[in-house]
User: Fold this.
Amino acid sequence: MSNALNSHFVGFRSGEVHFCLPHTTIEEILPIAHLERPPGCPAILEGLLPLSGKLRPVMNLARLLDLPIHPIEKFTPMVILKDSGRGLVLLVEAVSEVFAGDKLTWSSLDSKDSFNGCCYRVGRDEDHEWFELNLQGILTHQENKALESFQIAVEARAQSFISTS
Assistant:
């Protein structure tokens, strides 16, 4: 969890729900690109994004949090997270703003309001409630293991293709 008084946050939304992450956890934000979807791709993945020589797993935030799924359009934003060992990319409906954490009134969340542990706390301003995502809790242990195994298999397959070319 970040120190809200010393942090700036990037705000984005999925449907009517507003989320945020400390700007230090975000590598960049890009419009949707072509995603690879190799055989055996887990259901939680939208696909894989080839970026800087790595295949980055792309997940729809709405699907992860069991929110209504918005259609993926030409400029759907991809929030590329700094490499946390997984190199996740989140599809969100819209990126809205950057704001200082000290401009919000923060409070902790009851477990029933935390999107199954995917959010730490909520910050409130005059317009919105901003749920701060917990990047360590956004995937279950089983999802993490499945994703890790899948990435290893895909990278091995790609490497064998390159070495035989």
Q: What stands out?
A: Residues 119 and 134 are 5 Å apart (CA to CA). Residues 141-164 form the longest helix (24 residues).
